[in-house]
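Invent a record, attention on tokens:
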Amino acid sequence: MQSVRLNFALETGAFALPEAGQLAVFRPRAGDDLSALPKDRVQVISGFKPDVDHFAKAGFAVATVAAPAAAALVCLPRAKAEARALLAAAVAAVPAGATVIVDGQKTDGVDAIYKDLRARVAVTEAVAKAHGKIFAFPAASLPEEWVAVPAVVEGFTTAPGVFSADGVDRGSALLAAALPAKLPSRVVDLGAGWGYLSHHILQRDGVKELHLVEAEAAALDCARLNVTDPRAQFHWADATLWQVPHLAGAVVCNPPFHTGREADPMLGVAFLRAAARMLAPDGTLWLVANRHLPYDLPLRALFREIEEVGGDTAFRVIRAAYPDRRKGA
């Protein structure tokens, strides 16, 4: 969210906030400036643990589900299905006719959402600034199909906005196929998503304890439905900071490399470092990554033994073993 847009819209009277009552702010990202809003009345609504932790540390009330509010602000995400679901949730959280503000970058589809809403409700004139737009509309019924509901894809439950919501990710499928027939007793699925890799890990011999670590609450909720084996333990956490209670024999990982729309390979590198920290001295990381990502140097700095064990023209599957404590793992 660009604070310059919100400030300008409020200062020019493009729309107004209610004088009393809670303000539900849906899906702001860490670093978004909410200073134009009365902090003591704001509740940040997000299921992404790093963002939740950021705003909680800044002194905001945070929740994964909105309490009744007097008005709402939706910070549009990139995924259209998730954006629509957030708008439906915002409308459900406020009284009929209450102000719902929508803010988003052009690259995240704000123009398409504005057009969608304008065909259904009375929207204000959009304020265009900083490569995005902000506008408001009075809360009114939106199409039923916009409400977030779980979907079943290839036998797995997914939800709008989670990674690979429309089907099994190609890289994850390659990694699952490359896993050995036997794995150590304690395994971590780092960035577990809705549980596809965990499902396959639990089919291997030797596994007695599997930790699913996932930052997105909606994805982890799906994983709980997809992985019902009692050996599974679920952790809503920032995977780059979480530490297994006891060192693991294996970590399985298809790390993200985007922060919003922008590519951020260092996010994937942070996953590699986290994996190395949580592995036993003889532990192994099983990793899938796009071939263009610059992971070779970090892997060599973190592990003593590295080999490519699978993949295709776009992805490579890597086995990295024996984390090297002398190099900072």
